[in-house]
Every structure is written in structure tokens, then in C-alpha cells.
Amino acid sequence: MTGNIGKHTGPDRVVVIGAGMVGLSTAWYLQERGVETVVLDRSGVAAGSSWGNAGWISPGLSIPLAEPGILRYGIKALLDKDSPLYVPFKFDPKLWRFMLGFARRCTARTWRRTMASYVPVNRMAIDAYDELAAGGVQSPTHEAPIMAAFRKAVDSRALVKEIEQIREAGLDLETESIDGAALRTAVPIVAPEVEMAVKISGQRYINPGEYADSLASAVQDRGGQLNTGAAVRTIRHAGDGFVVELFGGEPVSGDAVVLATGAWLPELARQYGVKVPMVAGRGYSFSVPVAQTVPGPVYFPHERMACTPLGDRLRVAGTMEFRDVDAPLDLGRVESIVRAGRPLLTGVDWDDRHDVWVGGRPVTVDSLPLVGATRTPGIYTAGGHGMWGISLGPLTGKLLAEQIVTGVTPDPLRPFDPLR
Ligand SMILES: Cc1cc2nc3c(=O)[nH]c(=O)nc-3n(C[C@H](O)[C@H](O)[C@H](O)COP(=O)(O)OP(=O)(O)OC[C@H]3O[C@@H](n4cnc5c(N)ncnc54)[C@H](O)[C@@H]3O)c2cc1C
């Protein structure tokens, strides 16, 4: 047995289901502790929301989704078909139960309590990326401030207040308000109508698809197995361990199993006592060519649009659509993002869109991830990070690997207990 710490005997071989940022990070950190890993994914690497997201490693902004402002915003948004927030008006008891539970938590008090659970992990999130880099993951992380830009300066008030609250919660966040001219000097493609920006320093960004491929290669180079086209049907006990049964293909055995299946997590996890409601908060993205280099992420909070440089193109991402995770891509949502984006940026060819994409953020009712042991000893969950699975994925893998191998729950994971 490897990974023995104290009297606990860790597993020899762990099966990780899901080759997104969270599953791959968990596999990598398990390997750091000497555990043999097999990663299974029914499609491929980053086949879920880990591909077309905005790629921000922005622990300074990794905060609870449920807050009083989003509730007011949500009620207005329901009546606007172009709104970045979309909730279908159809009879769906599961979704509406989720919505009511979510709305109940949109209070300042709950936000503060939930934020306190984020602070310790946010502080460590970037270091985990540096560990991956030092350990051979080759895809780079780029340091750059996030420019949160506003067409009307008055609209920045909510963000400025939110930043104060993040600081009050104990997170260091270096920010500076800059006028439109200074913003355009830094990011020339921002349109002249944009009045100002809040510059948020100390964050990073990645090309998420490329990064996930690189992480998957690192896991394989270290002896890990990666089986794609391996759709998991069920998990059953066998001797001291488990056998993971697939829809087609040979079953895979392991001493422990990690469920890291993103927005599909409830499908496998519910039977192990994980009952926290979760839905897919679907987001869209595409890339467009830009006339001038964009030095780093640009965020338009009022329009809820996130832009990230990807080589010589710009990825534009937005929308929170509460629909079935496997529903088809709705081109109308893409058009809404384009309409919102046109007046904000110059030198962008909005019609030359590539990689139009939709992916489901795994959004929990209480805005907290689900990371840790389930009711069945040896079966763990790693997921439910909502808007922040890229920022927090590697650290999640690190902390969960520690828990699996030592049998002791690291303190920062306690609020993420999947059985809460
Ligand atoms: C538009 C958009 C922008 C975003 N921007 C950011 C950002 O800038 N920064 C940030 O931190 N986060 C961002 N996010 C959130 C982030 O993308 C997610 O939180 C994160 O990718 C979740 O990773 P995951 O590994 O948990 O899940 P996923 O990446 O969804 O991976 C789950 C995997 O499980 C597999 N799977 C599911 N069921 C099975 C099964 N039964 N058998 C086998 N395999 C299965 C799927 O094929 C999939 O590959 C964004 C999300 C969206 C949609």
C-alpha cells in the first residue's frame, strides 16, 4: 500500500469518473501521493464545462452566486428574452424547488457565511496551479489583471460594494478604479462609450481546453490510465473495493471511486446520500478575431459578459441558462451575447464566430461545492463548483487526495461536505 500516513492505510488504486478540470486534478494529486489512478470519461477530456469556459483563475472573485443583488436582477431578467439569465417558464418541479431554495439563500447574512467558507480555499487556489506547473503540466497560466468595465460609471457601484464585502470577509484583493482613457490604453479594443473600469490584480487565466489536455497528458505520463468513451452505468461493491460498470466495455476496478462528473453529478451521487440540490447553469461561448492584441481578461459585469484572449482570438462567454444539461445549444442565446457585445468592443469581427459552445456549470442550491466522502466508505464526490471550477479545480484535487489517502478531512473542505 502506498500513501500511508499515521495509522490510516490509503487506497492503492482509485477510479476517477469525469475527465474535467476537477477529476483530472484529483487524479494528478492522488498520483503525487503514490496512488495508481484510472480516469474514465464517457466522451473525452474536458467534454463538459471544462472546455469552453472563460478560463479565469480568479480566486479574488470566487464568491457565492446567491446574493441579494442577483435575486432582484433575476426577477427583472425573467421578463427579458435577451437577458443573460434565463429560467424557462415551464412546469419543472425540480427546477422550481431549486430556484426557491436558491432564492431563500439570497440574503446578506447567508452570503457572508458562505463567503467565509470560500476564503481559505481562494487563498490557496493559485498555489495549486504553480504546483501543477512545477510537477510537469506544460500548458501555461498567464498573469493579468481582470478589467471589469462599465459603460456607465454608476453601474460599477455594485461591484465596488461587493469588493468591499470580499475584503471584509478576509480576502486580500488589489483593485483600482481607472477611467475610460486609461482602460483603452491598457486594452485598446474597449469601445469609447465605456466610461471606466475596476482593475482587479493578482488573477490569472488559461486556455482551459488546452490546459485540460496538458493535465491529462501529465496524468498519463505519470502512469495513470485514461479511458475515454467509458460511460459509467453503476458502481458495485466487490471484495474490499469497487467495480465500475460501463455502458459497453470492460468494467474497471478500484479500491476507491471519485465521482467528478460536473453537472451530471447527481445522477451517480444521489444513491450515496448526496442530496444537495444541483442544476446545470448553462453558459455559452464562442471565439472571434480581434484587430489588436488583448492583454488579459475583460469583464462587463452589467452585461455579464466575460472576454478572454485565446491566441489571436478572443473568447466571449456569458449567460446563465437553467435548462437541462443535455438540451441542445440555443443559437438565440449566442445572438443575445453578440448584441450585448457589439457596442462594448471595437475591431471585433462578430460574424466570424468559431467554437460556438454551451456547457453546464454545476450549480448547487447553497453555492458551495460538494467535495468529500459520501455515505458509502470509499466513494467520494468532487464537484459542484458552479462558476468557479477552473479557479478551484486543482486545489480541490489536492485537498481531496489528502482526505482519500489520510482519511482525515482537511479543514478547508469541511464546509463542502457532500452529505450536509
Ligand atoms: C460559460 C462559462 C464560463 C465559465 N468561466 C469560468 C471561469 O472563468 N473560471 C472558473 O473558475 N470557472 C468557470 N466556469 C465554471 C467551470 O467551467 C466549471 O465549474 C468547471 O469546468 C467544472 O469542472 P468539472 O470537472 O467539475 O466538470 P466538467 O468539466 O463538466 O466534467 C465532467 C465530466 O464528467 C463526464 N461524465 C459525466 N457523466 C459521466 C458518466 N456517467 N460516465 C463517465 N463520464 C461522465 C463528462 O463527460 C465530463 O467530461 C465557467 C463555466 C461556463 C459554462
Specify the biggest β-sheet. 9 strands, mixed
- Give the helix level as a range of percent: 25-40%
Counted up, domains total 1
CATH class: Alpha Beta
Tell me, what's the shape?
globular
Bound molecules: flavin-adenine dinucleotide
- Number of helical runs? 10
Average the pLDDT over all residues and give the rounded result. 94
Rounded to the nearest angstrom, the distance between the terminal CA atoms is: 31 Å
The tally of strands reads: 21
The CATH homology group name:
FAD/NAD(P)-binding domain
| Assembly state | single chain
**Coarse structural class:** alpha/beta
| Radius of gyration from CA coordinates | 21 Å
- Classify the fold: give the CATH topology: FAD/NAD(P)-binding domain
Description of the structure:
With 420 residues, the protein is α/β, with parallel strands linked by helices. The protein has a single domain, classed as FAD/NAD(P)-binding domain. Helices cover 30% and strands 26% of the residues. The protein has ten helices and 21 strands. It has helices spanning 21-32, 68-77, 93-104, 108-134, 157-168, 180-186, 208-221, 265-269, 331-341, 389-406, and strands at 13-17, 36-41, 56-57, 85-86, 142-143, 146-150, 175-179, 196-200, 204-205, 225-228, 232-238, 241-246, 252-254, 256-259, 278-289, 298-300, 305-310, 313-321, 354-364, 370-373, 379-383. Strands 4, 6, 7, 8, 15, 16, 17, 18 and 19 form a nine-stranded mixed beta sheet that branches. It has a six-stranded mixed beta sheet with strand order 10-2-1-14-21-20. The longest helix is centred in the N-terminal third of the chain and has 27 residues, at 108-134. It is globular. Mean pLDDT is 94; it is low at 1-8. Bound molecules: flavin-adenine dinucleotide (FAD). Residues 17-23, 40-43, 47-50, 53-56, 230-232, 260-264, 283, 285, 317, 359, 361-362, 383, 385, 387-391 line the site of flavin-adenine dinucleotide (FAD).
